[in-house]
Design a protein that fits this description.
The chain has 310 residues and is α/β, with parallel strands linked by helices. It has a single domain, classed as Alpha-Beta Barrel (TIM Barrel), CATH 3.20.20.70. It is 41% helix and 14% strand. It has 12 helices and 8 strands. It has an 8-stranded parallel beta barrel, surrounded by 8 helices. Helix 7 links the parallel strand 5 and strand 6. Helix 2 crosses helix 3 and helix 8 packs parallel to helix 9. The protein is globular and about 45 Å long. The two termini are 35 Å apart. 49% of the residues are buried. Bound molecules: 3-hydroxy-3-methylglutaryl-coenzyme A (HMG) and magnesium ion (MG). 3-hydroxy-3-methylglutaryl-coenzyme A binds next to helix 4, helix 5 and strand 5.
């Protein structure tokens, strides 16, 4: 099932840097810097952005200002602003902030689920089901993440059938989009094909799936290409390759939005996004974070590989 015909050739990039990226930074960025980051990302033409998380501030202090970020940032027509929510308390905060969409999340592996959200998988379903129902009632879009879909930092290999089981339960709750997460960046393209084939066998449309790769071993672009060939058209990325899960040891940054753009632009299927604005945003963010960002694109344009222009 490597050449499934999708309804459109063009891909959508779902930007997770302000959430997945900043949740993993040792330093908490000031709210005004986050707001400027979001402004710059919207300016680039990205249409789907995960702004922050309404999780416990004790667990993720870096994103404790989620409500304030939403309150302070300007909205742009046509841009979907999303946030992660773990429970009804998070949803209440997200609705008060007037999000466009929410993301619920859990893991395919028991141990990561426990470390990340302090519950077994079985305990998680009854927490998430009313979140999905109430979010849909409030006319919000709902995405569901399945983390550790290709490997768990505590349990090792994860059986694709376990991923399918979690995915189907989330879809049964009513989520409209399923984001399959390679939380610690261990997948290779054949595993991506295998998992997508298993989901396809259960009649999950590829148009409902997003792929969320972390780039620990440099496999993310190959994996995204495999996903594209299978018919997936939505890919999560983060500006400059920021990212990681603080409750998944060894998880490195997400695949960079700029690197995904390079792949899909070269294939002629990229969305209308300004790579120049993404690049200037990554350069600006490096200054704010006080460190270099890891994207391939960043290394090329900042001259580390001997090039100064592209
Ligand atoms: P818990 O401690 O079991 O929660 O945490 P609780 O329900 O027992 O409540 C404990 C305290 O937290 C209470 O406060 C609650 O009010 C508060 P206290 O009475 O002690 O003062 N609380 C909240 N406060 C604000 N907003 C909330 C909220 N909920 C409870 N929503 C909980 C359970 C799920 C809350 C916690 O484990 C948590 O927040 N975990 C989030 C961890 C996280 O954000 N991880 C990273 C995101 S997942 C990820 O990165 C993977 C992904 O990128 C995909 C991939 O890469 O695979 C999505
Ligand atoms: Mg992630």
């Amino acid at each position: 099932m490597t050449t499934v015909q999708a309804s459109t050739a063009q891909v959508t990039l779902f930007e997770v840097g302000p959430r997945d990226g900043l949740q993993n930074e040792p330093e908490t960025l000031a709210t005004e810097v986050k707001v400027e980051l979001l402004e710059r990302l919207m300016e680039s033409g990205l249409t789907r952005i995960e702004v922050s998380s309404f999780v416990s501030p004790k667990w993720i202090p870096q994103l404790a200002d989620a409500s304030e970020v939403f309150q302070r940032m300007r909205r742009r027509r046509g841009v979907e602003l999303s946030a992660l929510v773990p429970n009804l308390q998070g949803l209440e905060r997200a609705l008060a902030a007037d999000v466009d969409s929410v993301g619920v999340f859990m893991s395919a592996s028991e141990a990561h689920n426990q470390k990340n959200i302090n519950k077994t998988r079985a305990e998680t379903y009854p927490v998430l089901a009313p979140v999905v129902t109430q979010a849909l009632q409030a006319k919000k879009q709902v995405r569901g993440y399945v983390s550790t879909a290709f490997g768990c930092p505590y349990e090792g290999a994860v059986n694709p059938l376990e991923v399918v089981d979690v995915a189907l339960r989330l879809l049964d709750m009513g989520i409209q989009e399923l984001s399959i997460g390679d939380t610690i960046g261990v997948a290779v393209p054949t595993q991506v094909e295998r998992l997508l084939a298993e989901l396809d066998a259960k009649d999950v449309p590829m148009s409902q799936i997003a792929l969320h790769f972390h780039d620990t071993r440099g496999m993310a672009i190959a994996n995204a290409y495999a996903g594209y060939r299978c018919g997936v058209r939505t890919f999560d990325g983060s500006i400059g390759g920021l990212g990681g899960c603080p409750y998944a040891k060894g998880a490195s940054g997400n695949v960079a939005t700029e690197d995904l753009f390079y792949l899909f632009d070269g294939m002629g299927v990229a969305p209308a996004v300004s790579i120049a604005t993404l690049r200037s945003t990554a350069a600006w963010l490096e200054q704010k974070l006080g460190r270099k960002l890891e994207s391939r694109d960043r290394r090329v344009v900042s001259g580390e590989e001997g090039e100064t222009t592209v």
